[in-house]
Design goal:
Layout lengths: L2 H19 L3 E3 L2 H4 L17 E3 L19 E3 L19 E3 L19 E3 L7
Parallel strand pairs: 1-2, 2-3, 3-4, 4-5
Amino acid sequence: MSDADDAYEEAQRKIANARQKGSKSLDLSLGSVGPLTSIPPEIARLQDLEELYLTSTQVSELSPLKDLRSLSRLVLISSQVSDLTPLKDLQSLSLLDLTSTQVSDLTPLKDLQSLSLLDLTSTQVS
């Protein structure tokens, strides 16, 4: 089993644990689960999740997050994310940290009224 497989399984365990405990915060960053390459779809069951950390991961696809309506803080520092479209309906999102990501288009965020802190340090946004 590869490190990425181990990280995915650990992420699944953390998601299941967060669901069981009703946790509002979840850390799936490199230091927490290992070299995660994709977000397990089970995360969609965490409807009360408010904070998610995906720092220093290889995650590029955010579609598993599209229905997390309570998410207010999303930290994607040093991830492989480039497309923010799955976030377009997350009206509770108030903090989005995109430091050192591949993001270049912020159009999907245009209707997010609650977004008050957006960090674009070292991104492709011009």
